[in-house]
């Protein structure tokens, strides 16, 4: 079955262009011009990924993400936000807090859009293949529900924090390089983007949320990358 993409944008010409291109690329596409109807379509059709405009009348892209991610069925749905203006740090933080997986700035290349979509879909597919709940050292990581408990208490993680932790835990003791993590967690091409600070910041946030006993298991192997220490 082709993977399903829900496109939400009030620009009719853009919707038509994206619909044709993604359909020709082998994806199943449904679309609408507003966030409220987009929520109804998401509930009815359970898309694999939503491509949503940041700025729309009524329910904008950020509000759409916030509402969608409260739905139980939406845990495995990726979200890419489209923006017609420069994306600053504040916009990125807002989007991540709302549950977005990626951003793309208009006008964009359709080939770049497809690459971004495939990268997000790959990450969700990898999570879905992880069998059952991972339980290690007081951690309970549920890939299907994309939820985490630490010593029985729910810990809220952003999308990238969850994917980063899952990547490290499912490969215990193995050092994962920064380029590997940027490609598999963020979907970046290491040839174009290879900033270790991105991974460093997210590891720092994870350590604070996980608490000192588990945080010490997230080890920075200088000059090589990061690993989850499963010993003891």
Summed up:
The chain has 232 residues and is of the alpha/beta class.
Specify Rg, calculated over alpha carbons: 18 Å
- Give me the CATH architecture of the largest domain, please: 3-Layer(aba) Sandwich
Number of structural domains = 2
How widely separated are the two ends?
Answer: 44 Å
* Unreliable runs: none
Give helix % range. Answer: 40-55%
- Biggest sheet, spatial arrangement of strands: 2-1-3-4-5
Arithmetic mean pLDDT: 86
Helix-strand blueprint:
Elements: E1 4-8, H1 12-24, E2 28-32, H2 35-45, E3 49-53, H3 61-68, E4 78-83, H4 89-98, E5 102-105, H5 110-129, E6 134-136, E7 139-142, E8 147-150, E9 153-154, H6 159-169, H7 178-186, H8 196-210, H9 212-215, E10 218-221, E11 225-228
Parallel strand pairs: 1-2, 1-3, 3-4, 4-5
Antiparallel strand pairs: 6-7, 7-8, 8-9, 10-11
Helix pairs in contact: 2-3, 3-4, 5-7, 6-7, 6-8
Q: How would you portray this structure in words?
A:
- With 232 residues, the protein is an alpha/beta fold.
- The protein has two domains: 4-127, Response regulator (Rossmann fold); 130-228, Orthogonal Bundle (Arc Repressor Mutant, subunit A), CATH 1.10.10.10.
- It has helices spanning 12-24, 35-45, 61-68, 89-98, 110-129, 159-169, 178-186, 196-210, 212-215; strands at residues 4-8, 28-32, 49-53, 78-83, 102-105, 134-136, 139-142, 147-150, 153-154, 218-221, 225-228.
- The longest helix has 20 residues, at 110-129.
């Amino acid at each position: 079955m082709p993977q399903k993409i829900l496109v939400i944008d009030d620009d009719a010409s853009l919707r038509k262009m994206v619909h044709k291109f993604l359909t020709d690329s082998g994806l199943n596409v449904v679309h609408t011009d507003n966030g409220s109807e987009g929520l109804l379509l998401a509930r009815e059709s359970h898309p694999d990924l939503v491509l949503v405009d940041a700025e729309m009348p009524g329910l904008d892209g950020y509000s759409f993400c916030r509402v969608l991610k409260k739905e139980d069925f939406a845990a495995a749905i990726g979200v890419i936000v489209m923006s017609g203006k420069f994306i600053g740090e504040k916009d990125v933080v807002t989007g991540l807090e709302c549950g977005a997986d990626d951003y793309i700035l208009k006008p964009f290349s359709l080939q770049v859009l497809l690459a971004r979509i495939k990268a997000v879909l790959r990450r969700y597919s990898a999570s879905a293949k992880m069998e059952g709940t991972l339980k290690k050292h007081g951690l309970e990581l549920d890939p299907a529900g994309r939820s985490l408990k630490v010593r029985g208490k729910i810990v809220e993680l952003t999308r990238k924090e969850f994917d980063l932790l899952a990547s490290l835990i499912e490969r215990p003791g193995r050092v994962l390089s920064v380029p590997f993590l940027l490609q598999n967690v963020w979907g970046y091409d290491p040839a174009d983007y290879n900033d270790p600070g991105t991974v460093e910041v997210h590891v720092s946030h994870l350590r604070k949320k996980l608490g000192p006993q588990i945080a010490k298991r997230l080890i920075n192997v200088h000059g090589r990358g990061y690993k989850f220490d499963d010993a003891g």
